Amino acid sequence: MRSLLFFLLILGQAFATENDLSHRPKSFNVNGGKAVFADFTEAQYKISYDLTSKRAYAVATINFEMLEAGFPIFDSVTAPSTVSLDGESVSAIETRTPQNETMARYVNKFTSIGAHELKIELPLATLVEFIDNGVKSAFWTSDLDERRFLERYLPANFEFDQVKMTFIVEFIGLKNKQVIYTNGSVQELNNQSYKIEYPSYYTASSIFFHTVPQGLTNELRFKLKSIDGRDIPAVVYFSKSTWNTGLERLKAKTIEVFQELESDYGPFPHPTLTVLQAGMGGMEYCGATMTDFSALGHELFHSYFARGVMPANGNSGWLDEALASWRDDGYQSSTFMSGSSGMSSHPYYTRTTDKAAYTFGARFMSFLDGKLKTKGGLKPFMRHMVDKRVFSPLFVEEFVHEMSEFYGVSVHEDFKRYTYGSSLNLDHSSNKSNSKIHRKMSIEELKNYL
Ligand SMILES: [Zn+2]
Fold first, then answer.
1. How far is the CA of 302 from the centre of ligand 1 (A)?
2. Rg of the chain over all Cα atoms, to the nearest angstrom
3. pLDDT at 280
4. Percent over 90 (pLDDT), the chain
């Protein structure tokens, strides 16, 4: 039994690595050589909040594999204060990708094929607020702007890469208690520090992390009964200082959506569920969301599509938004489609989601549902994708291939015509309807919800 478990564990890791390798972005030329995307295998982040000096900082220790020789790429919006590679002090350079799609950093040292270790120290200043009795801090993300996943706060890889991540969080000089809301497993090491382990299938867009001094939030903890028999620990909460619907209503809506999704797409894919009611619109994480009440269904749907069946890059990010918006609109079916979009064909290193997903993308899903009506429509395929591709980040081309295979009918031409066109031909007629769901919130706005 034990050896079987061990075997399955190794097998799981092998799949993650294989998937990472087949989705690793291609290298590009930089001054004096080639910047190369590495496969991060493990990352440990030591996150320190010094309540005495009111400073926060992090040390990331990243183990990675180089598949080709060159300058290893990582990303961090904040400039590191020190970087070392295999124990030797090095420098890192911030660069734009070849078509100016996004930015990243690379270690300015030629690095051979094989296993290496990168150590990066940096200040933690974004969404950190020290108050009298503790600290408020969060790593909230967005897919509507560049560099808004984990790299906004900590050194991380691009979204394709699944990495075993661990946080060691310490609150230096803490007198009261801090609460941590997160989608990892939390272990209290002593009354000032915690170890949080995240599943090895997580990527830079998976982690939900929010800590506040005890007493500032109202929370309700309960168990969700899954159709597979599990009792899934759930928490719904909000800050006492923000507008809310009340915990009971939030819990009732969470249970209602959870049951709807389980009956459509099978057992909830995550071990826990965390719901923070805050702000306008929402954002999804693996088994977690920060959302307003009206977007709760949309965001929990993303625990199946976006943070269950995961995008490997920006050009596949529209799929889950289109599917979520199609659900929001009541799974409408249509036989008519006009216009075009470039949702699948942005420049190679694009990391953001095309906002046409919410409107044009949702209508495209209605169209596909209508086209495939005699074969049961789109929902059976979606359930199939959760069964087959959960926690294996994918490209849009793989999604199209899976769909064609599932129905025995090619949908390549449909995707080509409606999602690989020029974005200039976009039909903006209903552009307003869903734009509130993932409304962009500035850092100043987000601070209000800490
Ligand atoms: Zn969404």
1. 7
2. 22
3. 86
4. 86
Stated as kind and residue range, the H or E segment containing 210 is strand 209-213
Ligand 1 centroid to 324 CA: how many Å? 6
Domain count, the chain: 3
Give yes or no: residues 255 and 401 share one domain.
no
Q: What confidence tens digit (pLDDT) does each residue in 329-379 have?
A: 999 999 999 999 999 999 999 999 999 999 999 999 999 999 999 999 999
Average pLDDT of the residues in 227-233: 98
| pLDDT tens-place string over residues 116-169 | 999 999 999 999 999 988 999 999 998 888 899 999 999 999 999 999 999 999
183 and 249 both lie in a single domain: no
Residues 292 and 324 in one domain: no
Cα 11 to middle of ligand 1, angstroms: 31
Predicted confidence (pLDDT) per residue in 33-71, tens digit: 999 999 999 999 999 999 999 999 999 999 999 999 999
In angstroms, what is the span from residue 320 Cα to ligand 1's centroid? 7
Mean pLDDT of the 195-212 span: 98
Q: Are residues 337 and 369 in the same domain?
A: yes
Measured in angstroms, how far is the CA atom of residue 145 from the centroid of ligand 1?
14
- 145 with 276, same domain? no
How many whole angstroms from 281 Cα to the centroid of ligand 1? 9
Cα 352 to ligand 1 centre (Å): 13
Long-range contacts of 243-250 (CB under 8 A, 24+ apart): 244/218, 244/277, 245/277, 245/293, 247/218, 247/219, 247/220, 248/220, 249/293, 250/220, 250/275, 250/277, 250/293, 250/296
> Does 361 map to a domain?
yes
Same domain, 207 and 239: no
Q: How far is the CA of 434 from the centre of ligand 1 (A)?
A: 9
Q: Using the 3D structure, point to which of 215, 239, 267 is the last residue of a domain.
A: 215
Do 54 and 175 lie in one domain? The reply is yes
Decide if 183 contacts 276 (C-beta within 8 A): no
Range of the domain at 325: 314-425
SS in 3 state form for 26-74?
A: CCEEECCEEEEECEEEEEEEEEEEECCCCEEEEEEEEEEEECCCEEEEE
Q: How far is the CA of 123 from the centre of ligand 1 (A)?
A: 31
Q: What average pLDDT does this structure show over 198-206?
A: 97
Question: How many angstroms is it from 421 CA to the middle of ligand 1?
Answer: 22
CA of 8 to the centre of ligand 1 (A): 33
318 and 178 inside one domain:
no
